[in-house]
Amino acid sequence: MVISHEKTANEIKKIIGIGIKNYLLKDCDEQEIIDAIKSCAKGEKYFCGQIIDVLLEKEISNKEHCETGSITSREIDVIKELVSGKRPKEIADSLNISYYTVVTHKKNIYKKLGINHSIELAQYAIKTGLMK
């Protein structure tokens, strides 16, 4: 786990690139620190909200995802449903597709966006205007 003051996207990416899975800023609140420690103990990744914002801001400001068309219209439908809190089975019923198709879309979305958590997906959706 790293606790740092470094907030630039390039430096954050360098630190993540060496295998760091838990990254907090020194000014994170108590709950984020507790959540990070729990995630670290479970072997899970955890990045504080500020780190996610910095990383997503760079990605979104480049407009790589939407302008290149890498996210399909059906994936956008799935993103909206996921961010609204629906589970894959509910999304499958809502969009008239199979549960496994929803799971595949979700996996592809996470891979294309380079994210690992639903919080990151929600931040992406808000920043790109998919959710208001």
Describe the structure.
- There is one protein chain.
- With 132 residues, this protein is mainly α.
- The protein contains eight helices and three strands.
- It has two domains: 62 residues, 3-Layer(aba) Sandwich (Rossmann fold); 65 residues, Arc Repressor Mutant, subunit A.
- The chain is 64% helix and 7% strand.
- Strands 1-2-3 form a three-stranded parallel β-sheet.
Beta strand count:
3
Instruction: Give the quaternary arrangement of the chains.
Output: single chain
Rg, rounded, reads 16 Å
CATH architecture of the largest domain: Orthogonal Bundle
- Based on secondary structure, the structural category is mainly alpha
H and E string: EHEHEHHHHHH
Biggest beta-sheet profile: 3 strands, parallel
How much of the sequence lies in strands comes to 5-15%
Through-space gap between termini: 33 Å
Query: How many distinct helices?
Result: 8
CATH class of the largest domain: Mainly Alpha
Biggest sheet, spatial arrangement of strands: 1-2-3
Helix content: 55-70%
CATH fold-type name of the largest domain:
Arc Repressor Mutant, subunit A
